Prior knowledge:
Number of helices: 20
Largest sheet: 6 strands, antiparallel
Strand order of the largest sheet: 11-12-16-15-14-13
Amino acid sequence: MDASDLTPVGKLQYKAIMEGEEVYKNLMKMSEDPMKYNEELLLKLIEDNKDTEYGKKYDFANIKSIEDYQKKVPITTYDDYAEYIYRMTEKGEKNLISAYDITHYAKSSGTMGNPKRIPLSTLSQKINNDYAMAFRTAVIAKEFGIEWINEIVLNLIEVSFTTLKCGATYGAVSGKMITNLSDMLHLFFTSPIEAFMPTLDTDSRYLHARFALAYKDLSNAVCSFFNLFLDMLRYIQRDWELLVNDIEKGTIDESIKMPDDVRKKLEANLKPMPERAAELRDIFSEGFDEPMIPKIWPNLKVLTGIGTGGFANYYKKLKNDFADDSLNYYFVGLTASEGTFSVPFELNNPDAMLVPNSMFYEFLPLGSEDFDDIVTIDGLEVGKRYEVITTNLSGFYRYRMRDAIEVTGMKNNTPTIRFLYRIDQSISFAGESTSEEALRNAAYKTEDECGFDLIDFSVYTESEDVPKCIYLMEIENIGDDFDKEKIRDKLAENVSEALTAGSEEFTRTSSKEASDYGHKLKSGILNNIELKFLQPETYLLYRDLMISKGTSSAQLKPPRVIVNDIHKRFFLALLDDELN
């Protein structure tokens, strides 16, 4: 392709592909001996940070090996850094935990409490950008060449930033990478800037859907989590007439929430598109028995996002209900505010390889609290499960992520992993701990066996006279033979199986207590599973409410385990009287 034929987005993506090929080549080189490069990274981090307050406290100057490091430096949690981060963000102090420039603080999702402030160094930002943009486009280009690069992209990642007292920005990591393009977003993405950086009272879901539908030649779509793309498709399916009418007339329906100044600015640049509207109207009038994605966007090649772990069921629904085999998936590996842990090396493969130059890795076998059991990359075993412990590029040392992963195989000599679940996202029921993975596997198996469409679910426990585990489900496509008690009984059976089964179909727990509990439940001793159904669009309302309170859509994860009374009251206020 001649450079003169490139559009602005084509130039950006061509540059990213060229850089990404180098990143890919370097990763493949490191993958031959990952422990060598990972150890080199650790020793560099120790040397660079030996004069920080933290480095002096733990004698970094005399650490010369991994063994020295593990003896001198303790395992940590966020609380170990809270005072340092307060001094950094509120008082502007430097050289406390990191000698590197900290220009951004990532806002964690706060699933277990108040959001944290995770420092993000400029070095870490570069690594994140290399793998999120350059590496990804290179992987896509290896499959499809570069003919697609001139087409603009559907991007559902929204940005919400504030500035801290120290002058650094504060917000989601996933949105940080596009802020440098803020003046040119309209050249690269289907959605207007008002959708990427929405005010609290702007319906960004409408904007993303409306502008994406208007653009037929879409080739790539990007989202933080697959459920966001699925939510948009369901919104289109439900409200297509409103969306198509607006595309036809070049308007924004009066029912769509947004400030008057935003509406006027957007409408000033809208033009009627009667031909595209007629095309869409013909497509949607035929119904939705056949996949809608290839009809709406016949050139859509790749969807990028997180589609494993707790998001695997959304991938399944996208693949089975909305797409055909022409859509490929780039499964983002394990990424977090703390850095990039793993990346996929090919399309349509949910396994992702560890990145040796992103952070230093340690792993604690699941079920163990003995830190003597910790292993490094070279000690990982295929088929086993671990908790991730990181020493990253931004000042966290031997930090417990509380993320559970499974080692799925090897790419060259580097382990490939899949994220499983957040260890803290569990419920305590009758004195036993049950993981979010087991809870969701039971819910999805019940969905398959009972033939309804599970939009989403949440779980909480009650421990009054008799301990109870309560599932809240929003469901669609209910058959004429709907029987709540039959579904509840099947759910209780599947919860017990999920705790006892050792196959891939259910959680492979290393906890003897959980297994014992599963047998008790299965035998009827503790068979106290309750089921309540939620009104339609409950989870969309939850999304809108959280965004109105300032949570970025890029940070919104399903509230699978209800951890506070506020969330509990919200969902209980939206029970479906007809189904209950």
